[in-house]
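Q: What structure does this chain adopt?
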Amino acid sequence: MRIACAVEYDGAAYRGWQRQDNAPSVQACVEQALSQVAAHSISVGCAGRTDAGVYATWQIVHFDTDAERAERAWLLGGNANLPRDIRLIHAQPVDAAFHARFSARARSYRYVILNREVPSALLRTRATWERRPLDAARMQQAATHLLGEHDFSSFSAVACQAKSPVRTVHRLQVTRSGDLIYLDVEANTFLHHMVRNIAGVLIAVGCGDRPPDWVAQVLARRDRTRGGVTAPAAGLYLVGVKYPDEFAMVSRGVLPVFA
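A:
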């Protein structure tokens, strides 16, 4: 039997999603918890390998098991064995053809920026702080250059191991609510650090350091060394994964919103 689960986690205490030998990871915690429920070793695949300090409201994983358990048992049993900063929030049996990563058609991230003169004591890991005033309208104007299919080499980490830098951005929206700016982006898939590099470029435009058309120039250069600053991991959330209708998977979790 193949089971798919949605996982929510606070990534501040972990070195990212992927299991590592000498550092805490979300994957290792999830596998250990599910193995307790299944009474055998469980290995999970995920929709997207988030970096150290990144959050998720809707990470999707799948695993295979011979153990017959109700969906509620996977949730309650799994959560009983997980630390408080990781939670299983949905579980369902899926077709054997389902794969959390390769079946996904799109992923969505939200990047949260606190834009005020002083940092927050409460949101210090949950939002990136930017002291300089940001113009969300300018950032949105700049974001339009990134919509569609492009070579995103300028927005990829230097060490990215993707076979191709070509990605398709379906949606990129910048909105302001008081002192908070939300950057919402959906693409078929993402390069390593792609969202954080997009955020860094849009922040440079929003504070007036660069004009909106500069984003098109960065994109055209296809050179990460010309792509500006990588924004911090704090404030980045994986919030949704879309699959073909045949798998009947819910596509999005709760969006992080701060008053």
